[in-house]
Each structure stands twice: as structure tokens, then as C-alpha cells.
Design brief:
180 residues, alpha/beta, seven-stranded mixed sheet, globular
């Protein structure tokens, strides 16, 4: 791999000896790369803006009001209709939502390319929580999701507390702590 040719300002050229010019170029390229990738993951506490599977435009605040208490949580559930694990976990997620509502807000994010496929499952399974349509993976990218299912637990300020790819004992304990 060859580095791009960088035209340095005159002051840099004057300081950099000829033999170390390659080192300077590599260092400049590294600095540029780091500057471009710093903070790639967006602020997870910013509201989710999007469209629910039924077409309604919404903005969902991920931070919760002080009245919800410091242990309040939000659980983002990234799922797809073609994901067998996602489908198997729906009954458990519905039971957990019923048990921990309102201390834990459940928010689905459907990553199907075809929104109708996600809506069909949402209606057939009678999901009790809203699901945002994310066919272009904008929300999934914001949270660094690499596959489905992905469950991201947020604290009352909207900061990530944990993530898992399945319902895990650690997640269940975190939900129980929030629900008490």
C-alpha cells in the first residue's frame, strides 16, 4: 500500500530532513486518519429520530426524566424478521417488557431492507413496544451494531451500560436491578 503524496507547507519541508520525509508523511497520514475516525460512534444519548414500522415519524428521547429515577433504563433491540434467534427471543422479550415496564423502556429497531417484512412480524407477534424501521442501517451504524440480535442497554442518561447478542444472564440481572 502506498501512501498518498502530501504537499507539506514550506515550514514543514524546511524542518524535515530529506531522509525522514517518508516518516513525516506517514506520521501526517496517521494524524489525518485518527482525526477522521475520532468519535466515529455518534452520541448514543441523542434522541432516536425515525419512522416506526407503521409509518409514523417519531423522536424517542433515550435519556429519561429525573422523575424516572437513576436506575431507569432503555433497552434497544436490533432485530430482523429473517433472524431465527430474534424470532425465538420475542416471547421472552415480551415477558420482560411486561415485567419491567415502565422502569425499562423497550425500543425495537428493525433492520429489514423491506419495512413491510418487519411490520408483518411486529403485528403477528403483537410486539408491545415500538419498533423503528432502519432499512438503511443508520441507527444500527450509530450504535455500532454488527449483527442481529443485538441488545443495547442504556442508563437513565442514555449512555450505554452493556450490549449483548442474546438474552444473557448479565442482561437479565441488569434489567432486574433497574426494575426494583
Amino acid at each position: 500500500m502506498s501512501l498518498p503524496q502530501i504537499e507539506y507547507p514550506r515550514a514543514v519541508r524546511a524542518v524535515a530532513p530529506t531522509k525522514s520525509r517518508g516518516v513525516v508523511r506517514r506520521a501526517a497520514a496517521l494524524v489525518l486518519l485518527l482525526a477522521c475516525t475520532a468519535g466515529v460512534r455518534a452520541d448514543t444519548a441523542a434522541p432516536l429520530e425515525g419512522t416506526l414500522l407503521d409509518g409514523e415519524r417519531v423522536e424517542i428521547a433515550l435519556s429519561q426524566p429525573a422523575s424516572a429515577g437513576p436506575s431507569a433504563r432503555s433497552l434497544l433491540i436490533f432485530w430482523a424478521s429473517w433472524c431465527p434467534t430474534c424470532m425465538r427471543e420475542i416471547p421472552q422479550l415480551k415477558a420482560l417488557q411486561e415485567r419491567y415496564d415502565p422502569r425499562v423502556r423497550f425500543i425495537g429497531v428493525n433492520v429489514n431492507k423491506t419495512v413491510q417484512d418487519g411490520l408483518d412480524v411486529h403485528l403477528e407477534q403483537a410486539l408491545p413496544y415500538p419498533s423503528l424501521a432502519d432499512p438503511d442501517l443508520a441507527i444500527a451504524d450509530r450504535f455500532g451494531v454488527q449483527g442481529t440480535p443485538t441488545l443495547v442497554l442504556l442508563d437513565a442518561q442514555g449512555r450505554e451500560v452493556m450490549r449483548t447478542h442474546r438474552l444473557s444472564e448479565q442482561l437479565l440481572q441488569s434489567l432486574a436491578a433497574a426494575g426494583s
